[in-house]
Q: What sequence folds into this?
């Protein structure tokens, strides 16, 4: 049974269709990358999965159980199983690094504080920020903030992690540290959806690459297939353009 | 010049009682003003156009006329329409009317400064709306609003001295009484000054601690 299954998903912003006929099936531990031109619906797909944009039609199944996005309580529950990290990190500015990571498990889930704190420190150590536990977000670089955001997203031990252009807002020299963190997570078996423009990174870590355009999945397959031997003309065109430089 | 505090210090219960009345006016006017201000800020943001116009007119009027004139107006206008109020109540209503407008502006600016992205981040972590208000919006808003709010509270506390003009025996009124009985005016008004400072400092600290402990807001009192 696939861990996450998307069947004939459709979504719109008002009258504008942004996703159509999306079908995807993801096994546990797979790293799926979504690539494609801007406006192709990659980030929108992640927003739909998170329940930020209700799907108009179609089904999302997590561990075989279909998600009812109209039910607020169920969507909140889903958000402990699927986590997302945004381009702009969006840390809570009035909380320290440690508090950012601890607030959801302690205040929202009511998990025991001592255990949560130990876990949070372990997570922050893993993203290389054990020395900045008491710092506030505005005292950190963009790359550090993004790594805190990743730790915060992992605090509820989600099964699936969605990364929405997490390096797009970073200065080039800070991109590496964030990619290293993701690479490490990838090797630990958490299922990931990655929307990224870092093509060499996508090629290296992904188990599956999905090429999207105009709200449709145009082609999907192994990184080798999509980057070296794309079948669809639009995919070939896109890959040709990005690999030329 | 020789100073003689002794006869005045013997009157400390009388003066402290006056300070207590001043504090009552300030706290009540601040509390009611916060409610009016919150309501007005909500109307300015979400209300229909004509309601926004009315609120704007109120804010412009109340912030561009002297508070003393506003209280005088109420003091003389209300009895004309058959409402007789005690001096304390009239002063309280005047102070509240004035404060509501300033507190509306402070709260509007505070809520406008909430970062939409942080709210979305809390949503995707599974926060409910009340949890978002409690853990994300209020700590931020309180932190942003705290300096102008405490400033407004201080201005209001000091403004309560106007009540003495209307016969309310608060700190300034009682100090005046003592000064005319004892002719120790300099001493009397220095004691009053110290008491005013004590009230505003304590109130600022209490407000800051409440914000810090209730909402974990990063508030610096001084």
A:
């Amino acid at each position: 049974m696939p861990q996450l299954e998307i069947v004939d998903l459709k979504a719109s912003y008002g009258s504008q269709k942004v996703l159509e006929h999306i079908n995807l099936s993801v096994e546990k531990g797979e790293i799926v990358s979504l690539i494609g031109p801007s406006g192709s619906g990659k980030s929108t797909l992640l927003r739909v999965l998170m329940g930020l944009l209700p799907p108009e039609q179609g089904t999302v199944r997590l561990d075989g159980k279909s998600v009812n996005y109209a039910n607020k309580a169920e969507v909140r529950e889903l958000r402990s199983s699927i986590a997302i990290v945004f381009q702009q990190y969006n840390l809570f500015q009035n909380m320290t690094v440690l508090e950012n990571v601890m607030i959801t498990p302690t205040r929202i889930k009511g998990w025991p504080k001592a255990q949560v704190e130990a876990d949070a420190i372990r997570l922050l150590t893993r993203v290389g920020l054990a020395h900045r536990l008491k710092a506030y977000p505005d005292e950190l670089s963009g790359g550090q903030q993004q790594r805190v955001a990743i730790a915060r997203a992992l605090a509820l031990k989600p099964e699936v992690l969605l990364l929405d252009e997490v390096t797009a807002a970073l200065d080039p020299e800070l991109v590496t540290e964030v990619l290293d963190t993701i690479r490490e997570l990838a090797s630990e078996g958490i299922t990931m959806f990655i929307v990224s423009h870092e093509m060499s990174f996508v090629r290296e870590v992904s188990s599956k690459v999905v090429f999207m355009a105009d709200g449709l999945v145009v082609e999907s397959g192994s990184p080798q297939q999509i980057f070296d031997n794309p079948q669809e003309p639009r995919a070939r065109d896109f890959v040709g353009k990005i690999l030329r430089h | 010049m020789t100073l003689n505090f002794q006869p005045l210090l013997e009157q400390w219960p009388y003066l402290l009682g006056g300070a207590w009345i001043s504090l009552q006016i300030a706290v009540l006017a601040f509390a009611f003003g916060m409610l009016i201000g919150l309501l007005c800020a909500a109307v300015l943001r979400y209300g229909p156009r004509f309601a926004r116009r009315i609120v704007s007119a109120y804010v412009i009027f109340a912030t561009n006329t002297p508070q003393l004139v506003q209280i005088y107006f109420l003091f003389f206008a209300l009895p004309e329409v058959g409402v007789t109020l005690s001096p304390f109540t009239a002063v309280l209503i005047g102070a509240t009317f004035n404060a509501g407008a300033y507190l509306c502006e402070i709260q509007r600016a505070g809520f406008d400064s909430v970062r939409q992205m942080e709210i979305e981040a809390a949503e995707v972590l599974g926060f409910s709306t009340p949890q978002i208000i409690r853990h994300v919006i209020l700590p931020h808003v309180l932190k942003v609003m705290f300096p102008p709010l405490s400033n407004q509270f201080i201005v209001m506390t000091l403004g309560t001295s106007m009540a003495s003009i209307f016969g309310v025996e608060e700190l300034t009124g009682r100090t005046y009484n003592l000064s005319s009985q004892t002719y120790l005016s300099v001493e009397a008004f220095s004691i009053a000054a110290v008491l005013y400072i004590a009230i505003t400092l304590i109130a600022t600290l209490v407000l800051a601690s409440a914000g810090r402990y209730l909402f974990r807001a990063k508030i610096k009192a001084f």
About this structure: The two ends of chain A are 40 Å apart (CA to CA). Chain A has one domain: 4-243. The interface with chain B takes residues 50, 52, 76-77, 79-80, 83-84, 86, 88, 90-95, 99, 103-104, 107-109, 136, 149, 152-153, 156 of chain A (CB under 8 Å). The mean pLDDT of chain A is 93.
